[in-house]
Amino acid sequence: MMAGMAPHRAQRSCLMIALLAATGVAALAWRCRWLTGDGAVAAAVVGAAVLGFGGWAWAGALAAFFVSGTALTAVGRGRKTQPEHRGRGRDALQVLGSGGVAAAISALWGAGAGADCLRLVLPAAFLGSLASAAADTWGTELGMLNPHPPRLITTGQRVPRGTSGAISPAGCLAAVAGAVLVAGVGAQGDGWAFTAAWIAGVLAMFLDSVLGATVQASFVRRDGSVGEDREPGARLARGVAWITNPVVNLLATLAGALLAALIYSAASVYR
Fold this sequence. Notes:
Layout: H1 2-31, H2 37-54, H3 56-74, H4 92-111, H5 116-143, E1 151-152, E2 166-167, H6 169-186, H7 191-214, E3 218-220, E4 226-227, E5 235-238, H8 245-267
Helix pairs in contact: 1-2, 2-3, 2-4, 3-5, 3-6, 4-5, 4-8, 5-6, 5-7, 5-8, 6-7, 7-8
């Protein structure tokens, strides 16, 4: 019995170390105002799950997404309007929307859950979810700095920068770069996983834009401005009230994971 319990003790120790490391990083991000208080708690949980169950390579992909996304958020901050650009930082819902799927996949991987065919595609699915989050973040943060107004993905109509569902050539190129970066860091030389992840990430980013242009909620604030946050006194301008930006991000990262798994599985025929 003692011999059988040793691996479980080792896993618990690894998880504890991962939680301590993730908590330290999250606390630093909170001190720097990159995360709100509840955002730091959520980030610690996500980071601990990814590092504790997925290992250093998976944690490296998560770090590439977080560090690059945080840095790009700060670029041209004065020309951006979202709350995280005004010094508030990302909250728990935003963190879970971007990293919740990756954390869940990591837990499945660490628990050894699923048949062999499922475990075969889990690494690609993990990378696909993070690649989609990176594509969305890079496309949004750099696209908002484009001097030319973007177009709504559904109608092609010119709209103000920062409008949900708007895309531009510059933003799309940035999205590809973000997906490639995250997939490259986490693929560990697996070319098929890398290819499946970044392609899935970019496709999921376009899905994110479609959802943003159609069902994502926008609210009119008391000062007359329009934003994605339901602040006190704000009223629904369009979309479905509960389909907020974090919900759209969660759906897009889930789509990225599923698409990457499908692409990787289909590519196995040619390997």
